[in-house]
Design goal:
By secondary structure, the protein is of the alpha+beta class. Helix content is 40%, strand content 25%. The strands form two sheets. A four-stranded antiparallel sheet has the order 1-2-3-6, covered by helices on one side. The chain has a two-stranded antiparallel ribbon with strand order 4-5. The longest helix is centred in the last third of the chain and has 31 residues. The relative contact order is 0.14.
Amino acid sequence: MYHDPSTVLSPKHMVKSVEVVYDSGPVESSWSVARLKWGEKPAIGIRWNGDSTSGKGMPQAFGNPAWFIVPRELEEAILSAALEKNQAEESALAEGYRLMAADRERETEAEEWTEALVGDID
């Protein structure tokens, strides 16, 4: 079961804010990277968001979903890779929408279908 990384605020005495930079979403082996306020310092965290064997994902702190804090020496590389992956996925999604909108035949069929639905209300 997928656990939304934006809701992972454990341990409460350390995690002050979470800005999810990349989330692979509710898929098997889902993972995320986030900018965090860890205590009073900025940090980068990474986690697995849960699957069929662990609904809370990993790591956990006392049974609560938590973040693995990336060593400072790796922060830039992990953050950069996560941002690039996020950008690539957003670009692919936008291209898919552009291609769908360019398909006039399907757009016409979709418009006719939605108009027929409106007609069913009357």
